[in-house]
Protein backbone atom coordinates (compact mmCIF):
# COMPACT_ATOMS: atom_id res chain seq x y z
CA UNK A 1 0.00 0.00 0.00
CA UNK A 2 1.33 3.44 -0.98
CA UNK A 3 1.14 5.90 1.92
CA UNK A 4 -0.33 9.41 1.72
CA UNK A 5 3.17 10.80 2.33
CA UNK A 6 4.60 8.92 -0.64
CA UNK A 7 1.74 10.08 -2.88
CA UNK A 8 2.29 13.71 -1.91
CA UNK A 9 6.04 13.32 -2.45
CA UNK A 10 5.24 12.20 -6.01
CA UNK A 11 3.29 15.41 -6.50
CA UNK A 12 6.17 17.50 -5.14
CA UNK A 13 8.63 15.73 -7.44
CA UNK A 14 6.33 16.34 -10.41
CA UNK A 15 6.00 20.02 -9.46
CA UNK A 16 9.79 20.40 -9.33
CA UNK A 17 10.28 18.92 -12.78
CA UNK A 18 7.42 20.86 -14.39
CA UNK A 19 7.47 24.33 -12.85
CA UNK A 20 7.07 25.90 -16.28
CA UNK A 21 3.90 23.95 -17.07
CA UNK A 22 0.28 24.70 -16.32
CA UNK A 23 -0.23 22.60 -13.19
CA UNK A 24 -3.91 22.51 -12.35
CA UNK A 25 -5.35 21.14 -9.13
CA UNK A 26 -7.01 18.34 -11.09
CA UNK A 27 -3.68 17.37 -12.66
CA UNK A 28 -1.87 17.27 -9.31
CA UNK A 29 -4.70 15.35 -7.67
CA UNK A 30 -4.51 12.76 -10.44
CA UNK A 31 -0.78 12.23 -9.82
CA UNK A 32 -1.55 11.54 -6.15
CA UNK A 33 -4.54 9.33 -7.07
CA UNK A 34 -6.92 11.42 -4.96
CA UNK A 35 -10.07 13.25 -5.93
CA UNK A 36 -9.51 17.03 -6.19
CA UNK A 37 -11.86 17.52 -3.21
CA UNK A 38 -9.80 15.30 -0.89
CA UNK A 39 -6.42 16.11 -2.43
CA UNK A 40 -6.50 19.75 -1.33
CA UNK A 41 -6.99 18.78 2.32
CA UNK A 42 -4.57 15.84 2.33
CA UNK A 43 -1.86 17.93 0.66
CA UNK A 44 -2.20 20.62 3.32
CA UNK A 45 -2.11 18.06 6.13
CA UNK A 46 1.16 16.62 4.77
CA UNK A 47 2.98 19.85 3.84
CA UNK A 48 1.42 22.66 5.86
CA UNK A 49 0.85 24.58 2.61
CA UNK A 50 -1.94 24.62 0.04
CA UNK A 51 -0.97 23.21 -3.39
CA UNK A 52 -1.08 26.51 -5.27
CA UNK A 53 0.78 28.33 -2.47
CA UNK A 54 3.57 25.76 -2.41
CA UNK A 55 3.79 25.75 -6.20
CA UNK A 56 4.13 29.54 -6.25
CA UNK A 57 6.85 29.38 -3.59
CA UNK A 58 8.83 26.76 -5.52
CA UNK A 59 8.56 28.80 -8.70
CA UNK A 60 9.78 32.00 -7.04
CA UNK A 61 12.62 30.29 -5.17
CA UNK A 62 13.74 28.54 -8.35
CA UNK A 63 13.63 31.84 -10.23
CA UNK A 64 15.66 33.58 -7.51
CA UNK A 65 18.30 30.86 -7.65
CA UNK A 66 18.51 31.02 -11.45
CA UNK A 67 18.88 34.79 -11.35
CA UNK A 68 21.98 34.30 -9.19
CA UNK A 69 23.63 31.34 -10.94
CA UNK A 70 22.60 32.09 -14.55
CA UNK A 71 23.56 35.73 -15.24
CA UNK A 72 23.71 34.83 -18.94
CA UNK A 73 19.95 34.33 -19.14
CA UNK A 74 17.33 37.03 -19.65
CA UNK A 75 15.01 37.64 -16.72
CA UNK A 76 11.89 37.10 -18.82
CA UNK A 77 13.20 33.70 -19.99
CA UNK A 78 13.75 32.62 -16.39
CA UNK A 79 10.28 33.83 -15.49
CA UNK A 80 8.67 31.86 -18.31
CA UNK A 81 10.63 28.72 -17.48
CA UNK A 82 9.40 28.97 -13.88
CA UNK A 83 5.75 29.16 -14.89
CA UNK A 84 5.00 32.90 -15.09
CA UNK A 85 3.07 34.08 -18.11
CA UNK A 86 4.54 37.58 -18.37
CA UNK A 87 7.15 39.92 -16.89
CA UNK A 88 4.64 42.02 -14.95
CA UNK A 89 3.12 39.11 -13.00
CA UNK A 90 6.58 37.70 -12.27
CA UNK A 91 7.98 41.01 -11.06
CA UNK A 92 4.95 41.63 -8.86
CA UNK A 93 5.09 38.18 -7.24
CA UNK A 94 8.87 38.32 -6.87
CA UNK A 95 8.80 41.69 -5.17
CA UNK A 96 6.03 40.57 -2.83
CA UNK A 97 8.12 37.60 -1.66
CA UNK A 98 11.66 39.01 -1.66
CA UNK A 99 11.05 42.73 -1.18
CA UNK A 100 12.88 43.85 -4.31
CA UNK A 101 12.72 43.57 -8.08
CA UNK A 102 14.27 40.66 -9.97
CA UNK A 103 16.82 43.03 -11.51
CA UNK A 104 17.97 44.36 -8.16
CA UNK A 105 18.03 40.84 -6.71
CA UNK A 106 20.28 39.65 -9.52
CA UNK A 107 22.67 42.57 -9.08
CA UNK A 108 23.04 41.83 -5.38
CA UNK A 109 23.24 38.03 -5.53
CA UNK A 110 24.85 36.98 -8.81
CA UNK A 111 27.58 34.40 -8.25
CA UNK A 112 30.96 35.33 -9.71
CA UNK A 113 34.60 34.48 -9.26
CA UNK A 114 35.38 37.76 -7.49
CA UNK A 115 34.52 35.89 -4.30
CA UNK A 116 37.90 34.20 -4.60
CA UNK A 117 39.74 37.40 -3.77
CA UNK A 118 37.53 38.65 -0.95
CA UNK A 119 38.98 38.97 2.53
CA UNK A 120 38.09 36.43 5.19
CA UNK A 121 36.52 37.17 8.54
CA UNK A 122 39.92 37.49 10.17
CA UNK A 123 41.19 39.99 7.63
CA UNK A 124 43.44 37.71 5.58
CA UNK A 125 43.18 37.76 1.82
CA UNK A 126 42.03 34.46 0.31
CA UNK A 127 44.35 33.48 -2.53
CA UNK A 128 42.64 32.22 -5.68
CA UNK A 129 42.72 28.56 -6.60
CA UNK A 130 44.86 27.63 -9.59
CA UNK A 131 43.30 25.09 -11.96
CA UNK A 132 45.12 22.26 -13.73
CA UNK A 133 42.94 20.44 -16.26
CA UNK A 134 43.37 17.07 -17.96
CA UNK A 135 41.18 14.58 -19.81
CA UNK A 136 40.96 10.87 -19.10
CA UNK A 137 38.66 8.54 -21.04
CA UNK A 138 35.89 11.08 -21.53
CA UNK A 139 36.26 12.59 -18.05
CA UNK A 140 37.38 16.17 -17.57
CA UNK A 141 39.53 16.29 -14.43
CA UNK A 142 40.21 19.54 -12.59
CA UNK A 143 42.90 19.73 -9.93
CA UNK A 144 42.45 22.98 -8.02
CA UNK A 145 45.44 24.09 -5.96
CA UNK A 146 45.75 26.78 -3.30
CA UNK A 147 49.07 26.88 -1.43
CA UNK A 148 49.37 23.41 0.13
CA UNK A 149 45.77 22.35 -0.58
CA UNK A 150 44.39 20.50 -3.57
CA UNK A 151 40.80 19.68 -4.53
CA UNK A 152 39.60 17.49 -7.35
CA UNK A 153 36.55 18.01 -9.56
CA UNK A 154 35.50 15.52 -12.25
CA UNK A 155 33.03 16.39 -15.01
CA UNK A 156 31.47 13.33 -16.62
CA UNK A 157 28.26 11.73 -17.83
CA UNK A 158 26.25 9.97 -15.12
CA UNK A 159 23.60 7.38 -15.95
CA UNK A 160 19.99 7.54 -14.81
CA UNK A 161 18.94 5.28 -11.95
CA UNK A 162 16.06 4.39 -9.69
CA UNK A 163 16.24 5.37 -6.03
CA UNK A 164 14.55 3.84 -3.02
CA UNK A 165 14.25 6.78 -0.66
CA UNK A 166 13.02 8.47 2.47
CA UNK A 167 12.41 12.22 2.69
CA UNK A 168 12.78 14.67 5.56
CA UNK A 169 11.30 18.17 5.79
CA UNK A 170 12.64 20.62 8.36
CA UNK A 171 15.90 22.17 9.64
CA UNK A 172 18.98 20.11 8.82
CA UNK A 173 22.01 22.38 8.36
CA UNK A 174 24.97 21.15 10.40
CA UNK A 175 22.90 18.54 12.24
CA UNK A 176 25.05 15.42 12.06
CA UNK A 177 22.88 13.52 14.53
CA UNK A 178 19.81 14.05 12.35
CA UNK A 179 21.52 12.66 9.26
CA UNK A 180 22.87 9.71 11.20
CA UNK A 181 19.31 8.89 12.29
CA UNK A 182 17.95 9.31 8.75
CA UNK A 183 20.64 7.14 7.17
CA UNK A 184 20.04 4.44 9.78
CA UNK A 185 16.33 4.55 9.00
CA UNK A 186 17.02 4.26 5.27
CA UNK A 187 19.48 1.38 5.66
CA UNK A 188 17.05 -0.48 7.89
CA UNK A 189 14.06 -0.01 5.57
CA UNK A 190 16.00 -0.75 2.38
CA UNK A 191 17.66 -3.83 3.83
CA UNK A 192 14.34 -5.27 4.98
CA UNK A 193 12.95 -4.88 1.44
CA UNK A 194 15.97 -6.38 -0.36
CA UNK A 195 16.61 -3.28 -2.48
CA UNK A 196 20.30 -2.88 -1.54
CA UNK A 197 22.67 -4.29 -4.16
CA UNK A 198 26.43 -4.66 -4.41
CA UNK A 199 26.75 -1.63 -6.69
CA UNK A 200 24.12 0.52 -4.96
CA UNK A 201 24.98 4.20 -4.55
CA UNK A 202 24.03 6.37 -1.57
CA UNK A 203 22.75 9.89 -2.27
CA UNK A 204 21.44 12.91 -0.39
CA UNK A 205 19.40 15.18 -2.68
CA UNK A 206 18.71 18.77 -1.65
CA UNK A 207 15.51 20.15 -3.16
CA UNK A 208 15.66 23.72 -1.88
CA UNK A 209 18.08 26.61 -1.64
CA UNK A 210 18.80 27.00 2.12
CA UNK A 211 19.49 30.70 1.58
CA UNK A 212 15.93 31.21 0.29
CA UNK A 213 13.71 28.57 1.89
CA UNK A 214 12.60 28.75 5.51
CA UNK A 215 14.39 26.13 7.61
CA UNK A 216 11.11 24.44 8.49
CA UNK A 217 10.34 23.86 4.78
CA UNK A 218 13.73 22.56 3.64
CA UNK A 219 13.49 19.12 2.01
CA UNK A 220 16.20 16.50 1.72
CA UNK A 221 15.86 13.06 0.13
CA UNK A 222 18.15 10.21 1.17
CA UNK A 223 18.23 7.47 -1.43
CA UNK A 224 19.85 4.19 -2.41
CA UNK A 225 20.09 3.29 -6.09
CA UNK A 226 18.53 -0.04 -6.94
CA UNK A 227 17.75 -2.20 -9.94
CA UNK A 228 15.14 -4.20 -8.09
CA UNK A 229 11.47 -4.28 -9.04
CA UNK A 230 10.47 -2.67 -5.74
CA UNK A 231 7.75 -0.08 -6.42
CA UNK A 232 7.48 1.65 -3.04
CA UNK A 233 5.27 1.19 -0.02
CA UNK A 234 4.01 3.08 3.03
CA UNK A 235 7.57 3.63 4.35
CA UNK A 236 9.98 3.66 1.41
CA UNK A 237 9.32 5.60 -1.78
CA UNK A 238 10.73 5.09 -5.29
CA UNK A 239 12.08 7.96 -7.38
CA UNK A 240 13.44 7.94 -10.96
CA UNK A 241 16.66 9.96 -10.90
CA UNK A 242 17.76 11.51 -14.17
CA UNK A 243 21.39 11.29 -15.27
CA UNK A 244 23.46 13.61 -17.45
CA UNK A 245 26.64 15.66 -17.34
CA UNK A 246 27.65 16.22 -13.72
CA UNK A 247 30.46 18.01 -11.88
CA UNK A 248 31.68 15.85 -8.99
CA UNK A 249 33.79 17.63 -6.35
CA UNK A 250 35.63 15.39 -3.89
CA UNK A 251 35.94 16.29 -0.20
CA UNK A 252 36.50 14.85 3.26
CA UNK A 253 34.17 16.69 5.65
CA UNK A 254 32.75 16.75 9.13
CA UNK A 255 29.18 17.88 9.78
CA UNK A 256 30.21 21.53 10.23
CA UNK A 257 32.06 21.84 6.93
CA UNK A 258 29.38 20.99 4.38
CA UNK A 259 28.24 24.56 3.75
CA UNK A 260 31.80 25.75 3.14
CA UNK A 261 32.31 22.91 0.65
CA UNK A 262 29.12 23.73 -1.26
CA UNK A 263 30.11 27.41 -1.30
CA UNK A 264 33.51 26.47 -2.72
CA UNK A 265 31.91 24.54 -5.60
CA UNK A 266 29.50 27.33 -6.52
CA UNK A 267 31.71 30.35 -5.81
CA UNK A 268 35.25 29.16 -6.58
CA UNK A 269 35.08 26.38 -9.16
CA UNK A 270 31.84 26.92 -11.09
CA UNK A 271 32.47 30.54 -12.21
CA UNK A 272 35.77 29.60 -13.93
CA UNK A 273 34.67 26.18 -15.21
CA UNK A 274 32.86 27.11 -18.42
CA UNK A 275 29.75 25.37 -17.08
CA UNK A 276 26.48 26.51 -15.57
CA UNK A 277 24.07 24.47 -13.41
CA UNK A 278 21.21 22.86 -15.25
CA UNK A 279 17.72 22.15 -13.90
CA UNK A 280 18.43 18.80 -12.23
CA UNK A 281 18.85 18.85 -8.44
CA UNK A 282 22.31 18.88 -6.88
CA UNK A 283 23.19 16.11 -4.46
CA UNK A 284 25.84 14.48 -2.30
CA UNK A 285 27.23 11.04 -3.09
CA UNK A 286 28.77 8.92 -0.34
CA UNK A 287 31.29 6.18 -1.22
CA UNK A 288 29.85 3.08 0.42
CA UNK A 289 33.16 1.58 1.62
CA UNK A 290 34.43 4.77 3.24
CA UNK A 291 35.01 4.88 6.98
CA UNK A 292 35.21 7.80 9.37
CA UNK A 293 38.77 9.14 9.60
CA UNK A 294 40.68 9.83 12.78
CA UNK A 295 39.88 13.51 12.25
CA UNK A 296 36.12 12.78 12.24
CA UNK A 297 35.71 13.35 8.50
CA UNK A 298 33.97 11.24 5.84
CA UNK A 299 34.44 11.15 2.08
CA UNK A 300 31.73 13.18 0.32
CA UNK A 301 31.30 13.92 -3.39
CA UNK A 302 29.25 17.06 -4.08
CA UNK A 303 27.51 16.56 -7.42
CA UNK A 304 26.19 19.49 -9.46
CA UNK A 305 24.43 18.74 -12.78
CA UNK A 306 25.88 21.09 -15.39
CA UNK A 307 25.83 22.07 -19.03
CA UNK A 308 28.15 24.23 -21.12
CA UNK A 309 27.74 27.96 -20.58
CA UNK A 310 26.30 29.76 -23.59
Automatic annotation (TrEMBL):
Domain spans labelled HTH araC/xylS-type: 9-108
Record-linked InterPro entries: AraC_E-bd, GyrI-like, Homeodomain-like_sf, HTH_AraC, HTH_AraC-typ_CS, Reg_factor_effector_dom_sf, SmbC-like, Tscrpt_reg_AraC-type_HTH
UniProt keyword Magnesium, yes or no: no
Keyword terms: DNA-binding, Transcription, Transcription regulation
Gene3D superfamilies for the chain: Homeodomain-like, Regulatory factor, effector binding domain
Keyword Transcription belongs to the record: yes
Entry protein name: AraC family transcriptional regulator
Amino acid sequence: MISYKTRINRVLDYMEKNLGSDLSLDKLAGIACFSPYHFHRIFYSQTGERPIELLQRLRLEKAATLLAVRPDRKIIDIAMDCGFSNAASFSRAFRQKFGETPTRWRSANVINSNLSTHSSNIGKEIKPWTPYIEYRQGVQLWRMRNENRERKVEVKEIGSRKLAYIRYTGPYKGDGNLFQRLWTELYTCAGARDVVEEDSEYLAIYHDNPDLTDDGKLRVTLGISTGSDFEGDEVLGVLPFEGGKTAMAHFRLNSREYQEAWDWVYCQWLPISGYVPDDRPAYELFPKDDEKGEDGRYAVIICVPVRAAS
